Structures are given as structure tokens and as C-alpha cells.
Amino acid sequence: PCNPAPPPFRLANYGEGSLYTLVLLRHGESEWNAQNRYTGWCDVALTKKGELEARAAGRLLKDNGVELDHAFTSVLKRASFTTNMALNMAGQHWVPVTKSWRTNER
């Protein structure tokens, strides 16, 4: 599982000369990630560490001035919870979120 970068951390070259910026965010640590188990489509929850990682991602977005127009997530709760926690921490809870099974893990 990925660990959040320790503050202060800056995103490299955010928005310089580009029309669009694509932000990819993996879900925080899930209960099965912590057990080194493959989750796939099993809908397991985030661990406390995973919740901290999601909030840290939102803080990173906020600290770097990243403003999102739209968010996409899978229907799995670990991904949708990560998205919502990150958006809330970034102060962007109003951003529209589209959930689709097509973005579930394979």
C-alpha cells in the first residue's frame, strides 16, 4: 500500500502550460490490503490508516491549489469513501462525483 507523502510536498509542474490536469488517486489501505490479500471486486472497507491516507491526499490537493471539476470513482466503498474523504479535506465537497462499475478493479 502507498503511504502519504510527508508534508510539505508539492506536486511537480501542476498546471504549467497545460489545458487540463488529470489527477489519479488510488484508494487508501483496505482491510484486505492490510492482510496482503487481493480484493478485486470484494467490497471491503478502508482501515484507519486508509482513512488517514485519503485525508492526506485531500490535504495534498488543497496545499497544491488543485481545483477539480469532476471526480470519477468505482462503486466499491473503499474507492468512493477515499474520493469523498479527499474531496472534503480539499474543501471541494461540492465537486460532482460519477460512480461506475467500469472503474472497479480487475
Automatic annotation (TrEMBL):
E.C. code: 5.4.2.11
Reactions performed catalytically: (2R)-2-phosphoglycerate = (2R)-3-phosphoglycerate
Name of the protein in question: Phosphoglycerate mutase
Family per similarity comment: Belongs to the phosphoglycerate mutase family. BPG-dependent PGAM subfamily.
Positions of substrate binding: R26, H27, G28, E29, S30, E31, W32, N33, T39, G40, R78
Active site annotation, chain numbering: H27, E105
Signal peptide residue numbers: none
GO terms, biological process: glycolytic process
Alphabetical keyword list: Glycolysis, Isomerase
Alphabetized PROSITE patterns for the sequence: PG_MUTASE
GO molecular function: phosphoglycerate mutase activity
Top-level EC class: isomerase
Domain of life, source organism: Eukaryota
Taxonomic classification: Eukaryota, Sar, Stramenopiles, Ochrophyta, Bacillariophyta
